[in-house]
């Protein structure tokens, strides 16, 4: 993973030059968006490197975790597409990969045979229980620069932003 410091410095310099050429540019908002995207990208790359030994990528992991965390361990592919922000084609690939490893199973819904239901298997539950604890220390270290109050404030502010921009996000644009 590349170091972020030179990218952060270059970004501030570049935004500063653009702001000089375009005085009406909302500098603070541009910096916030760029910092969020840069930070999220770095966190994702780091997280995916931790998932690689388990044979998962982020979308596979999120799908498996949604099934693991659901009340009855099931969901339809459509529900998972929405929650995991995946297109149906990619959800099919994810479901195939997880089913091939016996982490999930597919069945038809009892109330509607046309609907497919994905269910985490007992092997999938054991897999999640085994793989999660080693992921916690690097996650905790990523936010060690904040004290507990700062983490809570940061979480609250990110949630506030997410809920604010939700109606502004174009539903036709892919994630």
From TrEMBL:
Keyword Transcription: yes
GO molecular function per UniProt: DNA binding; DNA-binding transcription factor activity
Domain HTH marR-type per the UniProt entry, residue ranges: 29-163
Signal peptide from the UniProt entry: none
SUPFAM superfamilies from the UniProt entry: Winged helix' DNA-binding domain
Record carries keyword Transcription: yes
Keywords assigned: DNA-binding, Transcription, Transcription regulation
Official protein name in the record: MarR family transcriptional regulator
Organism name: Luteibacter yeojuensis
């Amino acid at each position: 993973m590349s170091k972020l410091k030179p990218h952060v410095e270059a970004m501030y310099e570049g935004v500063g030059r653009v702001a000089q050429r375009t005085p009406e540019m909302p500098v603070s908002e541009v910096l916030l968006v760029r910092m969020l995207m840069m930070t999220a990208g770095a966190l994702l790359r780091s997280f995916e490197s931790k998932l690689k030994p388990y044979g998962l990528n982020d979308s596979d992991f999120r799908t498996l975790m949604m099934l693991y965390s659901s009340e009855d361990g099931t969901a339809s592919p459509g529900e998972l597409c929405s929650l995991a922000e995946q297109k149906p084609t990619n959800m099919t690939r994810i479901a195939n990969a997880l089913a091939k490893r016996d982490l999930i199973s597919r069945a038809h819904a009892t109330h509607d045979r046309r609907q497919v239901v994905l269910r985490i298997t007992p092997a999938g539950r054991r897999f999640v229980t085994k793989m999660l604890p080693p992921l916690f220390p690097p996650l905790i270290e990523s936010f060690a620069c904040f004290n507990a109050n700062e983490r809570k404030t940061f979480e609250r502010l990110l949630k506030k932003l997410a809920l604010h921009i939700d109606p502004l996000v174009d539903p036709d644009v892919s994630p």
